[in-house]
Amino acid sequence: MKTISRLYRHKLSRYILLALAGLALALPAWAGWPKLTPAERQFTAPPVAPGAAAVILEKTVYCDNVKNTIRRFFRIKILRSAGLEWATVKVPYIDNSMKISHVEGRTVEPDGTIVPFQGNVWRAVMVKIGDEKIKAMEFDLPQARVGSILDYRYTIALRGGGLQDNGGYFVETILLPNTTWHLQSDLFVRREDYTLLANHSYNLHLLMIGLTPQQRPKRVGALYTLELKDVTPSPNEPFSLPAVDVLKSVRFLYSTHSFGLESARVYWRELAKQYAYAARHFIGNPKDLRRWLVGVNLSGTPEQKLRAIYARVLQIKNLYLGAHVVSPRQNHSVKDVLKHGYGYGTELNLTLIGLARAAGIPAWWVHSGRRNAMRFIRSWPDSDQLNNDLVMVQLGTKPVFLDPEAGCPYGVLLWYEDHVTGLVANHKGGQFVSVPFQLPRAAMRERRLDLHWQGGAAPGWQGTLTVQFHGLLAMQWGDRWRTRDAAGRQKALDQLARNWLPASARLKNTSSHGWQVGAPLLSAVWQVTLPASSPSTFWPQDILNARHPPVLVAENRLEPIYFHYPYLNQDTIRLLLPPGVSARNLPPATIIPNPPNSKAGLVFVERAALQHASQGDMLTIHRRMQLNMELVPVIYYAPLKNLFSVMTQTDRQRIVLAGQPTAALQKQ
Amino acid sequence: MTPRATGWLPRWGERLLAGLLVCLPAAAFAAPHPPDWLKPFLKFQLSPSIQLAALPGTPPAMRVKLLRRQQLEQQLLRRHPRGVLLLRETRLRVHGNGQITGRYRLVYRILRPQGSDLASFSVYDSPTWRVKRFRAWEVPRQGDPVRQRRKDAMAVNPYIGFPGYSDSLTLTQQLPTPQPGTVIAYDIRDREQPQILEHEWSFQQDVPVLEDRLIVRLPKGWEYKAAWRNWPATAPATAGAGGYLEWDLRRVPAVQLEPRMPPAAAVAGSLTLTFLPPQPLRALTLSPVNWRAVGQWYGQLTAGLAVPTPAIQAKAAALAQDQASLPAKARAVAEFVQHQIRYVSIDLSKSGGYRPHSAGEVYSNSYGDCKDKATLLIAMLQTLGLRAHYVLLNHRRGNVDATASSIGDVDHAIVAIDWPAGLSTDGLYALHDYPGLGRLLFFDPTYDDTPWGWLPAEEQGGQALVAGVAAGGDRVRLPVLGAALNHRLRAGSLVMQSDGSLRGRMREICSGSFANRGIELMHMLPERRSRLLNVQLASTTPGAEIHHWQGSSNSSDGSVVLDYTVKIAPYLQLSGDTAMLQPWLWPLALPRLRQNHRRLYPIQLGAPHSSSDFYRIHLARNLVLPAGSPLPPPQHLTLRLPGSPADQPPALAYSSQITWQSTPEGPVLQLLRSLTVNAFSLPAAELPALRQFFQAIRNDANQPLMLQVAAATPPAAPGAQ
Question: Does residue A248 share a domain with residue A272?
Fold first, then answer.
C-alpha cells in the first residue's frame, strides 16, 4: 500500500496508475459483452412503471478527461411493441470536435439467439450552418422484437477542449469538458454505473441534483464512481419545474479555484468586479450624459423622475425585440446608444443606469438567473448561472428592479426574472440581492361583458366585450402581435375572443390600445351578438369560458406543481333582462377560502346577483380567481386538485332565465 | 521621361494590379448590388396603371386596358395578402441523356408584417438532385440590400427525429430583416438526374402571383404531355422550333386557406409535364404518360425483389402451420409483417426513393419502410400461393390526381392481394371487385393499429395505382368501408349517489377507424392515457374522472372493446327545490367552421363514420319532472346533398332522445343519441346548412335538464330506504 502511495506522489506514475485503474474499471464492459444474467432475461416489468415499453437493464458510462473520451454501454430490454423504437440508435455529434468510433451492437432474441450487429453505421449531416456540422451516427439493431435484449456501445472522442466548456467569461480560462451525468431518462434504469477519470491538473467541483448524500460519487484519487439501482424514469408531468432542477444528475466543473463555499465567494467577488468594470467602461462619466436628459421631466419625486427616465429609455429602438434599423452601427458606449437611437438589450439596461445616475438616482447593474432555466446555487462557481441582467435602482430604502431590455412596463419583470438571486456589480466585489416576487396584480386580466336583449328579425343578446390585460400579460400579448399590422391584430384579437364565447357568437373587434413597447395596459373592445330565438334559456355562469385548463387530472403526482407566476383573473358579466323575463335559480355564491382571506394561496369568488332597474332586471355575474403562489409542494396536490374541481363546477352552474319579453320591447 | 516597367510585370500588368488593389477592397466592403434581372422589380409599384391611364396623351384604348389591369390587380389583392409573388420564372433544359438543368427565379414583395415568412425559402438537395446555386436577396425600401449565397443557407436533414437515414438535405435561406415593402428574391440553379421524366409546375400558391413563367427546352426528337389540374388547359404561348415551350400565367389568385379544406395540392392550379424521350432512353427511364406506364415501370423497378428466400419460406411455413385455412394463414403472415417488422426508412437518393430493399434483406434486418414491408409481405404471401401487388398511393386522400398520372403525387405503398373467388371473405372489408383486376384485398402493413381485413380511414376512398399486374398497372379507387363499419357504440349505466355524484361503468365497442384509436390508446402508457381521457371528458363534464380503464381487441372481427368506470362529482346543481343536471356527458367532435368570407373549397368530413351513445342514469328517488316542464323533444336532423335521391342515405344524420322511466328504485333517464356521417365531403355552398346543423346538435347536447326535489331533503340514492 505504501508503495502505491509513494508511486502516486510521482507525477508520471500517478497517470499510469490512474490509467490502469480506469482500465480495470472499464474493462468488464469493453472486453466482451457483459454476461447476461437470468434475472435480466426474465425481467418483465419495472416495479414503478408497470406499463413501460422498454427498460434499461444496464447502463455504463466511462468518461476519461485525460484522453477526452466517453464510452457508453447500454443494455435495453423491449417489453412492448412501442419500445421497438429503441432499436434505432441515433447519436448526434459535432463533426469538427467529436468523433464516434468502436460502434458495436447485438440483439439477444427472446429464445436466447444472439444476432450480432453487422449492418451499416450511417453518419448523416443533421444540421449544417456555414462550416459547422452536426452529424448523427445511426444504426439499427436487427431482429429486435418484443422480449429482445439490445446491447450496444460506442466511444466518443472529443477533439481539442470539449463541448460543455465553462464559457470562458471573465474568470474561467479552462477549456476542459465539464462532464454531466444525466442519471434519469425516459426509461426505467435497473442498474447504472458511471465513472469519471478526472484531469488531475485542475480543481474539480461536483454538484449533485436529486441525490441523497449517501449517493455521492465515490472518489479514489482522480477516479469518481457512482452506481445506482432502480432509477425511476423522468416523470414528464405538466406544470413542472425545469428538468435541470428536478432530474437526477451529477455535474462536474473544472475551476482554477479550490473547493468550497469560501472559494465560490472569491469567484463571485471577482466576477462582480469584472461586471462593474465592463459597466463603468460602457457608461462612462454619468455627468456627461446630462445633456441627454433635456426634455425629460425631472420634476417631482425620485420615483416620478425614474419613471420619466425609464419612458425615455423605452423610446430607444430595441434591436433585441426586432426593431428595424437600416444598417445599424455598433454602440461602444451609452452615448452611442443615445446618439444612434437604437441598441441591443444589455445596452439599454446600461443606458438606463447611466441616465439614472446622471439624474442623481443610484442605479446598479444586476446579473441574475432565470427561473425557467435553473435555480441559482451560490456554492457552484459557474457564471452560466447568471445568464440574465437587470437594473436595480435605489428609491429611498426601496430597491426597484427594472428591465428595459425586455421592454417590460415600469415596475414589471418577465415572470422568470423575479424571485431569483442577483449579483450586484460593483468594484468592491458585489453583493447578492433577492429580486422580489411580483404580486398577482402584475399579471391581471379583466373582462367585462355587457349585454341586452334585442328582439326583431334577428333576435339575440347584443352588447360589448371589453378586455384589459395588465402588466406582464399586456407585455406578453403585445409581444405576440405587435409586429402585425392593424388588420392582423384585429384578426388575432377576434380569434382570441372567439375562444371565450360560445360557438354561435358573432363578434367584431372595434378598437384596441396599448401596443407600444412597455405599455402597462393593453385593452380591446368587441361588438358581440349571441343569436338566440328567445331570452328564456339556461344561462351559464361561465359564459366567458373562464375555466382553468383541466391540467390537474392525474390521480397522483410526483413533482411539485409549478404555475410560473401569480395572476389575477376578474370577469364581470352584466345582463340587462327585458321586461317580462326574470332570472331564477341563482346559484349560491362560492367563496374560497371562506371566510375570505386575500393572503391564501388561491382566492376564488363567484357570485350572481339580480338588481331591479327601470329598464328591466340587471343580472350581474362576478368572478374573481387569484393565484398567489407559483410553486405548490406535491403534498398539496390533492387539495389543490379539489379546489380546481370546485371552481370548475361553480363555473358550470346555470341560471334560469324564464318568461317572454313584453310586446313593446319585442318591437325594438 | 517614359515611366518604366518594374521588370517582372509589363506596364499594363502594373496598371491592372494597381487597379485591382484599389478596387478589390472597395468591392469587398461595398454593399452587394442586386442583379440586373431584379432591378425592374425594385421600383415596381402595384397598380401603377391608374397614374399611367391619367397621363395626358394616353390613347383611349390603352387607358381602358390600363384601368382594366388595375381592376384585376385590385381584385387579386382584395383580401390584403401578406405578400405577392411578382415573378417566378422557371427555365428547364432537358438534355439528351435525360439530365435536367433548371434555373428558378422568384421575386416576392412583402406587403404586410405578417409576410416576413416569405423571407425564408427551402430547396431540396441530394446526390441526384444537386443544387448548384442558391442565392437570396433582400432589398429594403431604404438601406443596403443583403445577399446570401449557398454557403449561408442552413442545411437540415429531413430525417431528424424520424427513425431512419437519408442522404438528402433541405437547404434554407433565411433573410435577416424582412419588412413591408421589402423585395425578396431567390435565384436557384440545380441539376437533376431523374429516374422519372416529369416536372410539376405548381403556379398557384398561398400568396397571389402577378406573373409565373415556365420555359422548357427539349432536345430534338423529344415530346411532351401536359396535364393541368384545377386550371384551364393552355397551349404554350411560344412553341418555336427545337422544342422551345413557354407558358406565361398572369394574376393567379392565392389559394384561400379554409378550415377542413382538401389538401392544398388538390385544389391549387398546377401543370404536370411529362417528357417523352426517343428510344433507347425511353426504355431506361419513366415517362409517366398514363397510370399503366407508371405501373409497368414500377413492376420493372421491383422485379426480383419480392422473392422468398429459404429463410422467408421457413418463417411463412412456421406462421402458417397452426392455421387451418388459407385466409387464416394469410392473416398470420400479414400480422407478422405488420407488427414484427419495424418501420425504419433508409432513404438513399440513388434508389430514387421508390425502389424497395429485397425481401430477404428486409426479413434479416427485421426493419424497413412502407415499400420494404410491402415487398416482404408479397414474398411471404407468394409462399402460401397467394399473388399480391404493390399499391402506390398518397397517405392523404385527394392528393393523387387521377388524370395526371404523376408519380410525384405518390408517397406511400401498401399491398393488394388477389383474393381467389372461392375463398372465405368473413371479416374482410377492404375487399373490392374491379373489372379487369378481379377481387382484391387491400392491406397496409405499415400502420400498426389497423386490423387485418380493414383499411386506415385516411386511405379509404382514395385514388391508388395497383402496380405489377398483367396490364402493367391500373388506377383504382380504394374501398370505402362505410359509416356502419367505422362505428363506435358507447353504452353503460350510471347511478346517482346520495352525495349527488354519479358513478357507473361504461363500455365502448369500436370498429374501423374507432378501433384504430382504441388500439392506439391500448398501446399508450397508462398515465398518459389517463391524462388524455380525463382532459377530454372534463372539457364537457367538469369533475368527471375515468378509472379502471381496460381495452381488449377481438381478433376475429377486428373490433375493440374499451371498459372503464366514470365518476362525476358533484353532478347535480341544487337550488332550493330545483335541481339541474347535464344529461349528455360525452363530447361530440364537431368542427368549428369559422369563416368570414365566402367558402371556395369543399368541406372535408373524413371517412364515413358513425357513433352512438346509449346509457341510463339512475336518479335519486326524490327527483321528479316539474309539472309543465317536459323533457327535451326527440331530435331527428338530417343534411342531404343537393340533388341526392331520397332513397340514398343523407350526408349527415343526427338523432337524440331522452326518456323518463319511473321504476320502484327511482326514476331512470334513458339517453340515446347517434351521429352518422355518410359523405367524405360537402360542397362549399353547403357551409351555412352544415353550420346550422352543427349548431342544432350543440344546442341539443348542451341543453340542461331541470328537475324538482320532491321533498325538502337532499337527493336520496336510488333504492336507498
Answer: no
Confirm whether A367 is domain-assigned: yes
CATH number, domain with residue A545: 2.60.120.1130
CB contact under 8 A, A130 and B152: yes
Do B461 and B377 belong together in one domain?
yes
| Residue A2 belongs to some domain of the structure | no
The answer to whether A654 contacts B573, with C-beta atoms less than 8 Å apart, is yes
B174 in A contact zone (CB under 8 Å): no
Q: State whether A128 and B177 contact (CB < 8 Å).
A: no
Interface test with B, best of A80, A81, A84 (most B CBs within 10 A): A84
Cell of B467: 402496380
Contact indicator for A561, A640 with CB cutoff of 8 Å: yes
Looking at the fold, whether A347 and A434 belong to one and the same domain comes out as: yes
Residue-wise pLDDT tens digits, B625-644? 888 777 889 999 999 988 88
Q: What is the pLDDT of residues B555-579, one digit of tens each?
A: 778 899 999 999 987 788 877 788 8
Q: Shortest Cα distance from B438 to chain A (angstroms)?
A: 36
Residue B30 to chain A, least CA–CA distance (Å): 13
> How far is it, in rounded angstroms, from Cα B251 to Cα B75?
9
What confidence score (pLDDT) does residue B449 get?
A: 85
Which chain B positions have a beta carbon within 8 Å of A50's beta carbon? 526
Interface test with A, best of B124, B367, B369, B372 (most A CBs within 10 A): B367
* Residues B505 and B606 reside in one and the same domain: yes
Check CB contact of B140 with chain A, cutoff 8 Å.
Answer: yes
Q: Which amino acid, B410?
A: V
Are the CB atoms for B287 and B277 separated by under 8 Å?
yes
Find all residues with CB under 8 Å of A306, minimum gap 6, and list them.
A356, A361, A393, A395, A400
For each successive 10 residues of chain A (668 residues), what is the average pLDDT? Answer: 48 52 48 88 85 92 89 94 89 88 93 90 89 89 90 87 37 58 93 91 85 93 94 88 91 72 80 92 93 89 94 92 80 95 93 96 94 87 90 92 94 94 88 92 95 89 96 94 90 91 87 94 96 84 72 81 93 93 86 82 90 85 92 91 85 84 53
A91 and A171 co-located in one domain:
yes
For the whole model, what pTM was predicted? 0.84
Q: How many helices (H) and strands (E) does chain A have?
A: 12, 34
Same domain, A415 and A310: yes
CB contact under 8 A, B575 and A87: no
Number of domains in chain B: 4
Cα–Cα distance between B42 and B30 in angstroms, integer?
Answer: 19
E-strand spans in B538-665?
Answer: 544-553, 560-568, 573-575, 578-581, 603-604, 609-618, 623-624, 635-639, 652-663
The three grid cell numbers given for residue A196, joined into one nine-digit string: 469519471
| Residue A360 and residue A406 in one domain | yes
Domain count, chain A: 3
Q: How far apart are CA B342 and CA B332, in angstroms?
A: 17
Q: How far is B123 from chain A (nearest CA, A)?
A: 14
**Nearest residue, CB atoms, A81 vs list B367, B448, B526:** B448
Find the helix or strand (DSSP H, E) in which A144 lies: none
For residues A357 and A387, membership in a common domain is answered with yes
Within a domain: residue B397? yes
Optimal mutation site among B157, B166, B520, interface A, most CBs of chain A within 10 A: B157
Range of the domain at B308: 291-477
Q: Does B587 touch chain A (CB under 8 A)?
A: no
The verdict on a CB contact (< 8 Å) between B367 and A140 is yes
* B372 in the same domain as B503: no
What are the contacts of B424-429 at 24+ separation with CB within 8 A? B424/B325, B424/B327, B426/B327, B427/B452, B427/B453, B427/B556, B427/B557, B427/B558, B428/B327, B428/B452, B428/B453, B429/B453, B429/B454, B429/B455, B429/B479, B429/B481, B429/B485, B429/B512
Q: What is the pLDDT of residue B8?
A: 58
